[in-house]
Amino acid sequence: MGALRLDALVGFMQDIAGDDAREATGEPTSAPIAWLVRRLDLEVRSRPRALTPLTVTTWASGHGAAWAERRTRVATPDGIVAEAVTIWAAVSAETFAPVRLDRDEIASWGEAAQRRVDARLRLPGPPVDGLREPWPARVTDFDAYGHVNNAVYWSAVEERLDGVLGPGALGRATIEFRDGIAWGEQADLVTSTDDGVVLWFLVGDRTAATARFEPGV
Q1: Which of 28, 61, 135, 180 has the most CB within a 10 Å radius?
Q2: DSSP of 34-79
Q3: What angle do CA 148, 173, 196 make, to 5 degrees?
Q4: In DSSP terms, which residues pair with 71 in a beta bridge?
Q5: Burial per residue of 19-37, b for 16 or more beta-carbon CB atoms within 10 angstroms, e otherwise
């Protein structure tokens, strides 16, 4: 209790990504392009206690045809708390169709962002006989685009970790999003603890997202 949770940690990373993107492009919040998380690789090295000052640093580190890679570091005065590599997909804010990135915009992100990266999903699909548990979303879990905010999924990961590995687990985690969970959809959760902790967020027969946590850093 009182230690930094995964959903809060990812929330900080999400907020600074939005701030940095708006500052770099000069676009208002209502810009026609929406940036949605495709994949996030996270290494959690420590769990600071409440009121510990945090420094969050982010920079663009790669791009693809319709996506960009961003690296983020969270630290305290005593050292690095967590580091993340996130693939953000550029989509139309109205249709959610992929939007090809402008070459001039990519050039403005700096030298590190000129590296080409892929956006492939790598985590396996759910087990056929996996036990499904309802995972109801709250009204406050949805973002401005009508989907469950990506940081909210980490609350389910945190809850499972607490029961399997104990509170404040450290390790490496990945979350991958396909279509996500939209407003009005009923989601279920399937969990495996055979190799770390793996969670599948399902809507009917569709996998909306997959998260994996492997203990140890």
Answers
A1: 180
A2: EEEEEEEEEEE---PBTT---EEEEEEEEE-SSEEEEEEEEEETTE
A3: 110
A4: 59, 85
A5: ebbeeeeeeeeeeebbbbb
**17: alpha, beta or left, given left = phi > 0 and alpha = psi -120 to 50?**
alpha
Residue 157 has pLDDT above 60, yes or no: yes
Laid out side by side, the sheet with 33-44 consists of 55-63, 67-76, 79-92, 33-44, 171-177, 206-215, 197-203, 188-192, 132-134
Give the C-alpha separation, 147 to 184, whole Å.
10
DSSP state, residue 125 = P
**Between 23 and 35, the higher pLDDT residue:** 35
141: which residues sit within 8 A by CB, 6+ positions away? 148, 149, 152
